[in-house]
Write a structure and sequence with these properties.
The chain is of the alpha+beta class. The chain has ten helices and ten strands. Helix 1 crosses helix 3, helix 2 runs antiparallel to helix 3 and helix 6 runs antiparallel to helix 7. It starts with a strand and ends with a strand. Bound molecules: adenosine-5'-triphosphate. It comes from Proteiniclasticum ruminis.
Length: about 280
């Protein structure tokens, strides 16, 4: 079975509280982009094995796709085994939910492949055990994600917009980004309702005005280059620009493909990986 595991960008990321167990309470608008990994599932007699076309991705229990297979096997009592192959196109540790989307694909794929009969809600509950972004990745599209990532409200699609992803040549640990964040210092939160209105109207000026990521300033303190990448993305004509998730990827949303294509060479400077994609 071959699955497409799509990346996401954050149109917003707000941190609205912290639970006693240390988890941050979030309010995020997430958006799927066309960029995807390919996840290939093959049945084997027993056990779990994993391979990946990129040497820098772990292929043992540390891989979140491996963890997803283990979890769904335990939850369903499945006795057959699985081989997972990942063709990795999504940059790693980039704020694009690269690992989470592979895990979601494994959950969805194995449920269908072995007719396990788990409901969408049950898959989401398993996904949440793996990571805050996994339930959203099971859903996809344009969505408001709240709580620790478990409350998902589908929104009118903001699909069909041209996006350029700019990933500088380093990764950011999600844990470190949240660790450096101080909720008490936040004076102004994201105006999520207004952003939702702008998205529903396809109003790029409004999206530009209201899209915000509260982790951006925190991550910029450690990696100031993110700020200059944002400025360059604006200069190349992007209508909206923001850091996605815990970074370091910065994206630009462009009015049309021609402007975006013209921006690629300029943004590729300084070792950045640059990917042209679109919202779906
Ligand atoms: P998020 O946006 O959900 O925070 P991310 O894009 O920042 O995700 P990932 O690409 O998921 O981060 O990678 C984070 C870490 O997880 C990396 O250090 C990587 O080695 C490890 N990892 C485990 N499984 C995977 C996988 N299937 N794909 C990519 N990275 C993985």
């Amino acid at each position: 079975m071959i699955l497409k595991a799509y990346a996401k960008i954050n149109l917003s990321l707000d941190i609205v509280g912290k639970r006693d167990d240390g988890y941050h309470l979030l309010e995020m608008i997430m958006q799927t982009v066309e960029l995807h990994d390919e996840v290939i599932l093959t049945e084997r007699t027993s056990g779990i094995s994993l391979s990946c076309d990129k040497a820098y991705v772990p292929v043992d229990e540390r891989n979140i796709a491996y963890k997803a297979a283990k979890l769904i096997m335990e939850a369903s009592g499945l006795t057959s085994g699985i081989h997972i192959h990942i063709n990795k196109n999504i940059p790693v540790a980039a704020g694009l939910a690269g690992g989470s989307t592979d895990a979601a694909a494994v959950l969805k794929g194995m449920n269908a492949m072995f007719s396990l009969g788990l409901s969408h809600e049950e898959l989401k509950a398993l996904g949440l055990k793996l990571g805050a972004d996994v339930p959203y990745c099971l859903e996809g599209g344009t969505a408001l994600c709240e709580g620790v990532g478990e409350r998902i409200t589908k929104l009118k699609s903001f699909g069909g917009h041209v996006v350029v992803l700019v990933k500088p040549p380093f990764g950011v640990s999600t844990k470190d980004a949240y660790g450096a964040f101080n909720l008490e210092k936040i004076k102004r939160h994201v105006e999520t309702e207004k952003l939702m209105d702008s998205l529903a109207k396809d109003d790029l000026n409004g999206v530009h005005y209201y899209s915000r990521n509260l982790l951006e300033n925190v991550v910029i303190q450690s990696y100031p280059v993110i700020k200059s990448i944002k400025q360059r993305v604006v200069k190349t004509g992007a209508r909206v620009t923001l850091m996605s998730g815990s970074g370091p990827t910065v994206y630009g949303i462009y009015e049309n493909k021609e402007t975006a294509v013209r921006a690629l060479d300029e943004l590729r400077k300084n070792g950045n990986e640059v990917i042209l994609t679109e919202t779906v």
